[in-house]
Write a structure and sequence with these properties.
The chain is α+β, with helices and mostly antiparallel strands. It has one helix and two strands. The chain has a two-stranded parallel ribbon with strand order 1-2.
Amino acid sequence: MTGQTAKTTYSAALYCRLPRDDGNVQESSSIQTQKEILLRYARENAINNMAFCVEM
């Protein structure tokens, strides 16, 4: 493979946790904000294969 570079693929589990002060809300704005931040980070760092893990 002369002149070619291997493309690295990264995988990650993106972990979100519901704060105690949010109570038992199904999906609070806190979880949504955490997902947005993690997704932005993943995209900016070439993490293409990802899954969210949400603890409530």
